[in-house]
Amino acid sequence: MKKAGVSKWVILSLVIFLVVLILIVSGLVFYLLLGSADYTGVYEDRIVSGEIVNPVIGLSDDEAVLKFDESFVYYLLVNIKAYNLHEAMFSDEIPRIEFYIDDVSYNAEIADGEIDVEVGEINGEDIIIRTSALEGVKMIRDENYISDSFSSGASGIELVADKSTLFAKGYLKIYSELTGGDITGDVISRFFD
Fold it and tell me: Is the per-residue pLDDT at 121 higher than 80?
């Protein structure tokens, strides 16, 4: 008799343990796949209000190339929705991106939806983007051109951080924006090869 009672407690404990484990795993998967907050609406409002202005408006490509600076890199990051990058779960390391635009290096850090761009290299970058000022201008002028620039080889992306860190910080979506690849299948296999 006691044996049957003990078995019920063991089974009940096992069921409770499995339910808790499933909830924890589901929470982690949900966090990793959906990431943190989505700041798209905030940035759309900033563009509509004129707080963020496309730096190529009113300039020819040649004029824009000559004026290319941090504001152009910032706007490019807005176009690819880099503001949605986030710290990996259980980490305080913010996303860091390094750019080489022709012979000039820029760096960007993203924290809580805010993008900070400066001139110069950065330590601990997650990815490196290489392109020319002219390609940058074209991508800023037409965000649909972004994937064309990367798929044609006119621009490139180098994955520096380990692939699990890139995935946990939300770079899979950015990679998809840059390359035009689907976030399933081919893109996942490139990240986790």
Answer: yes
List 129's β-bridge partners, or say none.
99, 157
**Residues paired with 97 in a beta bridge:** 108, 127
Domain with 14 in it: 1-34
Specify the number of domains making up the chain: 2
Both 168 and 99 in one domain: the answer is yes
- 4 and 87: one domain? no
DSSP class of 80: T
Mind giving me the DSSP string for 64-75? HHHH-SHHHHHH
CA 149 to CA 151: how far, in whole Å? 6
Q: What is the mean pLDDT of residues 113-140?
A: 96
Residue 33 tokens read as: 């796949």
For the segment 163-175, the average pLDDT, to the nearest whole number, is: 86
Q: What pTM, to 2 d.p., does this model score?
A: 0.78
Give yes or no: residues 27 and 41 share one domain: no
Q: Residue 7 corresponds to which amino acid?
A: S
- pLDDT for residue 185 is more than 50: no
Neighbours of 187 (CB within 10 A): 17
